[in-house]
Design brief:
By secondary structure, the chain is mainly alpha-helical. The chain has one domain. Helices cover 70% and strands 2% of the residues. It contains 15 helices and two strands. A two-stranded antiparallel ribbon has the order 1-2.
């Protein structure tokens, strides 16, 4: 099939952002209901469904008030000029949406989990990473440029908060959590002191991966809802407090998606994207489920590797004129697909499907 035919086919399969977000919401709700019915936790606080629904309603409702407020204070997104040209029309759309939907999921999760120490620790790390993102977003708005705080400062803050979280792990958790990494099929890997490097790397890498993925209307909001649902479902038998927190975060992402689907009324900004990655990493570390995180973060991993591959290939192919070749039309990978003729909604819908499949695979392996 030539490119012209492919593009025509793409257009015929194009769906609205609203229909895609609604389909995802129904799919996630159906999975949660099904798992609760099987485990006989239906209509209980310690279930997937109730925290999920409450998180979605709370986040969506708060957004109805918060989005106009962000517009009023002129928190409009500055669009990078070297990005896809179709994105330039989004300039001025309010950003920093993470400032309302992340605290919503965190606070609701804490309340429903009865302020369990594990839930408090994950929430603290999540809000700390949200603060880093807020500082970055605020600097972008203040400077009217797409450059916020310096990369070195952002990395230093990420590593610093990750280190504090790891110290808390060392102080409160059994040695089996902080030295042995659980693997599928009942296997484990003993890392000893190397675990600390892995833990800090996980938090920093996951937050940066979700940050890179947040580049298309509705993409990270929906993927975040799917990833948190996967973690919540896997942890239900062993860590009910983390399950509740993850389910609330999944619902909060869905509620945010009501305002963020294409065409977006608001962007989550670094305030949201860094926080989501931090929360996923912290939950996985505390529950010793890093292999689960690796699978459900498959899309985030692909996005990150596409950026790394692009930079490495460009530098390795530089000629005498100092200009190199590009492996992709643009990185991260979702931009490559856009420039190849995919509509934003097609990219989002395909990524949703892939991530749902990864979650189902993960649950099958872990069952």
């Amino acid at each position: 099939m030539d490119n012209l035919t492919f593009n025509k086919s793409n257009k015929s399969l194009n769906f609205s952002g609203r229909s895609i977000s609604l389909s995802l919401s129904f799919c996630i709700l159906a999975i949660a209901l099904g798992l609760d019915l099987v485990s006989q936790r239906f209509l209980q606080i310690g279930s997937l469904t109730i925290p999920l629904i409450l998180g979605a309603i709370a986040s969506m409702s708060l957004g109805i008030w918060a989005v106009p407020l962000l517009q009023k204070i002129k928190a409009g997104q500055v669009i990078r000029e070297d990005g896809p040209q179709a994105h330039l029309k989004k300039a001025g759309t309010p950003t920093m949406g993470g400032a309302f939907f992340v605290p919503t999921g965190v606070i609701l999760g804490l309340v429903l989990a009865n302020f369990h120490p594990n839930a408090i620790a994950v929430s603290a790390l999540t809000l700390a990473y949200a603060l880093i993102g807020w500082l970055d977003d605020w600097q972008i708005l203040r400077k009217k440029s797409n450059k916020g705080i310096s990369p070195k400062m952002k990395l230093a803050l990420q590593v610093g908060f990750a280190g504090l979280f790891c110290l808390w792990l060392w102080w409160t958790q059994p040695a089996s959590i902080i030295t042995n990494v659980a693997l599928p099929f009942g296997l484990s890997l003993s890392l000893g002191l190397l675990f600390w490097g892995l833990a800090i790397f996980t938090l920093v890498a996951e937050s940066n991966a979700t940050n890179l993925t947040d580049g298309v209307d509705g993409l990270m909001g929906g993927l975040g809802a799917i990833a948190f649902l996967g973690l919540a479902a896997y942890l239900a038998p062993t860590h009910p407090e983390l399950m509740i927190l993850a389910a609330c975060m999944s619902g909060s992402c869905l509620g945010f998606l009501y305002h963020n689907h294409n065409p977006a009324q608001v962007f989550m900004g670094d305030t949201g994207s860094l926080a989501l990655g931090g929360a996923l990493g912290a939950i996985a570390l505390l529950s010793n489920s890093l292999w689960v995180l690796l699978i459900i973060s498959g899309i985030f991993l692909i996005e990150t590797l596409s950026v790394i591959a692009q930079v490495v290939y460009y530098k390795s192919t530089k000629g005498p004129d100092g200009v190199g070749k590009r492996l992709f039309k643009m990185a991260p990978y979702h931009h490559h697909l856009e420039l190849s003729g995919w509509a934003e909604t097609q990219v989002v819908g395909m990524f949703y499907i892939v991530n749902l499949v990864l979650v189902l695979i993960c649950l099958l392996i872990g069952s």
